[in-house]
Please model this.
Amino acid sequence: MDWIMLARETKELKAVAHWIAKEHLLNHWRTYPICEKCGRLQASHAHHFDYAYPCVIIFVCRACHTRLHQLMAQVGISA
Model:
């Protein structure tokens, strides 16, 4: 598969995953959930570990979301 097709597919997967996260948040919570990493209130970030699995989401605060991306970059996982 050439890189242009891969980029398009990745972009489409990401868009679908973001839409699912937004719909899940709007339909299941009236306020933001608690951070699944540190327990802080107002976990306003949805994190997908793999866009191929758009329903696998964790809700985290901004600080934990940043740390997750830093850890993923350290081990060579694209985020």
Summary: DSSP finds two helices and two strands in the chain. The helical segments are 3-28, 62-74.
